[in-house]
Each structure stands twice: as C-alpha cells, then as structure tokens.
Specification:
Layout (H helix, E strand, L loop, with lengths): L4 E4 L2 E4 L3 H7 L8 E5 L2 E5 L8 H6 L22
Antiparallel strand pairs: 1-2, 3-4
C-alpha cells in the first residue's frame, strides 16, 4: 500500500489508512515504536519486557544490596 509523507510542524507524518488501523487494532492515542531497518521504517507495538525473578536476583550483589530497615516499634496490631 502506498501513502504520502506529509509535513506536520517541523516533523514529517505518515497517515495510517483506516483498514490498516483496523487490521492491527491501532487507534488514536495508541503508543507505537519506530525503528529503521535497512532502507525503511518499521512501526509496531512496543515490546513489553518479561522479567523473571531468577534473572533479577542474579543481578543482586554485595555492593548493591541494602541493609535492614528499622521501622520502629509496632504502633497497632502488627505482628513482628
């Protein structure tokens, strides 16, 4: 599908045709990522990183680990 690049203020803009927006479930206000690939531009949904607890724990070291925090005596029905 061809479309035309237009000026939008000091930037450039590409209009997403209605049928493409419907096929990709994109709507006004949706966030997208853009990247260059070879001699073109790829527009897509942002990739959400999935973190695993074991991967995060592997990054804990003696230098970035904090000590205990003393929150004081109980003030209500807390069980220490």
């Amino acid at each position: 599908m061809k479309t035309t690049i237009r000026r939008w203020g000091h930037s450039l803009a590409v209009r997403i045709p209605r049928n493409v927006a419907q096929e990709t479930s994109l709507g006004a206000g949706d966030e997208v990522e853009m990247r260059t690939e070879d001699d073109g531009i790829v527009v897509g949904r942002p990739q959400v990183k999935a973190y695993r607890l074991s991967d995060l724990m592997d990054r804990v070291t003696k230098t970035n680990r904090h000590s205990e925090v003393d929150w004081g005596k109980s003030a209500g029905g807390e069980v220490w």
